[in-house]
Amino acid sequence: MIDPLLLIVYVIIFPGFVFLLAYALFFEFLDRKITARMQHRVGPPFFQPFADLIKMLGKEVIDPDGVDRQVFDAAPLVALAAVMTAFLYIPVVWTSPLAFQGDLVVVLYLLMLPTVALFLIGWLSRNIFSAIGGIRAVTQMFIYEVPFFLALLTPALMAGSWSISDIVVWQQEHLWFMFLQPIGFVVGLIGLQAKLERTPFDIPEAETEIVAGPWTELSGRRLALMHLTNDVSLVVGSSLIAALFLGGPVLPWTMSPVWLNWIAGFLLFLAKTLAVLLILSSIKVATGRIRIDQLNRIGWKYIASAALVQVALVLIIDYLGAAA
Amino acid sequence: MPEVIIPIGPQHPALKEPVNFRVIADGEKIIRLELDLSYNHRGIEKAAENRNFIRVLPLLERVCGICSHSHSTVFAKGIEEIMHLEIPPRAQYIRTIIAELERMHSHMLWLGVAAHEIGFNTLFMWTWRDREEVQDTLEEMSGNRVHYGMNEIGGVRCDLTPVQVDKALSRLPNLEERIEKYVDMVNNQKTMLLRFKGVGHMSKEEALKFGAVGPTARASGVDIDTRRDDPYLAYPEVPWNVVTDTNGDVYGRTRVRIGELFESIKIVRYCLENLPGGPIRVNNPPKIAPVGEILSRYEAPRGEVVHFIRTNGTDKVERVDIRTPTLANWTSVAMCLVNQNLADIPVIVAAIDPCLSCTSRIAVMNRNDRKAGVITMDELRKRDRTCRIKLDES
Amino acid sequence: MNQLISIDAVQEMMKGIGTAELVRYNRIRVAIAQEMTRKAVSLVMGPLGCDRLITMSTADNGDTFELIYHLTGPHQMVISLATGLPREKPETESMSDLLPAGIYERQIHDLFGIFFKGNPNMKRIILNEDWPADEFPLRKDWEKGPDTFYGGIKGEKI
């Protein structure tokens, strides 16, 4: 294990929490700028997400009559803590020092917590729009989680390990999983878009139908923290896909000074997560929102079956490989 | 979930103007609807009885922002018919050009709003960007982007110079190219098709039974268009077609409106190229109208606008009864929303292109204290930018 | 599109119910009594070939209220059925089962006070809910009461 002081620096500063927050705000800026330019608009300046965060933190917190104040205060904190913790297990420079067998499952579990928090906030808001939004969030979660998990399961199957860092190292010696499992890659991207509740899957927060869904009664620092959770989830999701399918922050060879590997790995990490962001933003710009019942139909008919096909293919290849 | 009452309005992100729908829903399915339209009522019909014909035109123009030219034209042509005035052909053509440009900008606005309602903000941004070309043309011609004030009793207020005509003609090919792209998008974009097809379906019999007008009715196959049924302005001389569709749902209404966009471009181009010479207004139109009654009809962007005008031999109207297209379409919306999904309410409501300023026209105004709703002559003169106003105040 | 119906055909059909006159090349005005409204509407919607209601107009004529139904059809002729209602008791039958007149009748009731018997939903539609129940603003003799509360926030001077 590495030096405890270095571990603390890793966790808190780089590439831990401070770097994560900065990168999340940068991602939000990029997402908004790309969207705006594709829509023939100018888009926000560079520091806009940071300014928005500071502004929202300073606003008044409004409690609707009779809501449970403690849960309302706790839920955004829990959601933010969950996604920030999930980032610790994702390889940023080479492999993660906190990796262990099964950390893929832990990351996926932690990424689910924001949706549950959102549902809780929506349900407890004593507001019909929030209740409908919360129900939609959980329904959507049921629909996309199965294909998403299956799609992320197949790299683990082929690499023979439940640790993200091991999967990344496996890809260093073999091909990227994007080429070996293209169906899984596509299903993973779609599932990620649904997890992050972005168009075409921004059903829980459908502005023109239910005001803001579960976000309606959030204000002040609660809204700031949930917003930040959204941004951090975007980073964590993109880097998860980048690690599992695009090879992660490892070069196909190791170089002599160890720290040179880390710099190269970090640059690769940036490049790959930005590529995933570009794909996600393009999907967001090019589509409109679909209804929850249409998502139900599409999700189970096409996306889940595609994921199952991918799993079946991997099992067959595995069996043939073992038999040969 | 048991029956729940969901308030849509009077403040709601899906609505651009205040209306109160109380939706009684079971889960995501709508059971019935209750309608309350009183939020924008301004007292225009009553106020119009106290103004002479020159002052009542700007008032009637402000019934609605987007169909402003419709209301003032339908009133002006009604009064001119009661007075037996013959309008010079150049004025008719200019009125037609402004009317069709208004239809174009209204339909493009609608396309953007419908896309926004389904969360497809890209199309919203693009259509509104192209709409700016139409607005630029209107501003060059009349001095304003809405509320053009082009009509007078007896003709139009200002003329079109050759420079304006050329500029307007040069913008049309670009618009046509962009609208082709929108046709392509509407027919092929998967999420738009998913949200528009099969939503808010209304058969031809239902459209007639509920009294729908305009593109809402034409999308269900009802072949009514006041420009052809009760011809006025320059429409008898211009070659154009009525656009109908048989789909009857929101997709059909989108196709009808885009088809009308193409037709409007054709009409504008024809009128601009064949603008007849001559005066633009009648010299010294009469200030007093004989006793009479007329039902004046006009095809506004949203449907048929009807002014029932009765005069009594003075220089004011005795009664002007306005029936706007959105009022006629509300019944059809309330009926075709039943058994649809909650998520489709904004799309279906947006599909009739609701204009609540037109629908409700009352409020109590204390005219001694406030100037709201009254634009004085001096203010009109100050706002004149590109045209000269020659009006008498009697 | 059919030909415009001739004035003679309409006069023939309306014998005993009202008198028809051609006021414009495409509009025929038929003056009928209030009791004959339903019969006239069914005649116009049936044999005379009209299939939709354009609008319902009202005017205040001093001692009567005039209520006019404008109907048209594929023949492009507008038939206006004009009835007069006495000012003291302006009541007539609702046509909301034959025509989509429900929304117009609610509006006319709010503004003029004409009551439509048989309309299933005679609630306020165009005036706000605080408006006093017996003031009808579009009547010629209506004056704004100086102290009456018409809606909005009490005590706020507009």
Topology:
The complex is a heterotrimer of chains A (324), B (394) and C (158).
Chain A: H1 4-12, H2 17-38, H3 48-57, H4 69-88, H5 103-124, H6 128-159, H7 164-173, H8 177-180, H9 182-195, H10 207-210, H11 220-245, H12 258-286, H13 292-323
Helix pairs in contact in A: 2-11, 2-12, 3-11, 4-5, 4-11, 5-6, 6-9, 6-13, 9-11, 9-13, 11-12
Chain B: E1 3-8, E2 20-26, E3 29-36, H1 44-48, H2 53-61, H3 68-82, H4 89-117, H5 121-142, E4 151-152, E5 155-156, H6 162-188, H7 190-196, H8 204-209, H9 214-218, H10 226-229, H11 250-273, E6 292-300, E7 303-311, E8 317-323, H12 325-336, H13 345-351, H14 356-359, H15 377-383
Antiparallel strand pairs in B: 1-2, 2-3, 4-5, 6-7, 7-8
Chain C: H1 7-13, E1 18-24, E2 27-32, H2 37-45, E3 52-60, E4 64-72, E5 78-86, E6 91-93, H3 102-112, E7 115-117
Parallel strand pairs in C: 2-5, 6-7
Antiparallel strand pairs in C: 1-2, 3-4, 4-5
List keywords for this structure.
heterotrimer; A: 324 residues; mainly alpha; 13 helices; 0% strand; C: 158 residues; alpha/beta; Beta Polymerase, domain 2; five-stranded mixed sheet; two-stranded parallel sheet; 29% strand; elongated
What does this structure look like?
The complex is a heterotrimer of chains A (324), B (394) and C (158). The mean pLDDT of chain A is 88. Chain A has helices at residues 4-12, 17-38, 48-57, 69-88, 103-124, 128-159, 164-173, 177-180, 182-195, 207-210, 220-245, 258-286, 292-323. The longest helix of chain A has 32 residues, at 128-159. With 324 residues, chain A is mostly helical. Chain A starts with a helix and ends with a helix. In chain A, helix 4 (69-88) packs antiparallel against helix 5 (103-124) and helix 11 (220-245) packs across helix 12 (258-286). Chain A has one domain. With 394 residues, chain B is of the alpha+beta class. Chain B has one domain (42-323, 367-383): Orthogonal Bundle (Cytochrome-c3 Hydrogenase, chain B), CATH 1.10.645. Chain B has helices spanning 44-48, 53-61, 68-82, 89-117, 121-142, 162-188, 190-196, 204-209, 214-218, 226-229, 250-273, 325-336, 345-351, 356-359, 377-383, and strands at 3-8, 20-26, 29-36, 151-152, 155-156, 292-300, 303-311, 317-323. In chain B, helix 4 (89-117) packs antiparallel against helix 13 (345-351) and helix 5 (121-142) packs antiparallel against helix 6 (162-188). With 158 residues, chain C is of the alpha/beta class. Chain C has a domain at 7-89: Beta Polymerase, domain 2, CATH 3.30.460. Helices cover 17% and strands 29% of the residues of chain C. Chain C is built from 3 helices and 7 strands, in the order H-E-E-H-E-E-E-E-H-E. Chain C has helices spanning 7-13, 37-45, 102-112; strands at residues 18-24, 27-32, 52-60, 64-72, 78-86, 91-93, 115-117. In chain C, the strands form 2 sheets. In chain C, strands 1-2-5-4-3 form a 5-stranded mixed beta sheet, covered by helices on one side. The longest helix of chain C has 11 residues, at 102-112. In chain C, 41% of the residues are buried. The model of chain C has no long low-confidence stretch (mean pLDDT 82). Classes of the chains: A mainly alpha (324), B alpha+beta (394), C alpha/beta (158). Chains in contact: A-B, B-C. Chains A and B meet through helix 6, helix 10 and helix 13 of A and strand 1, helix 4, helix 5 and helix 7 of B.
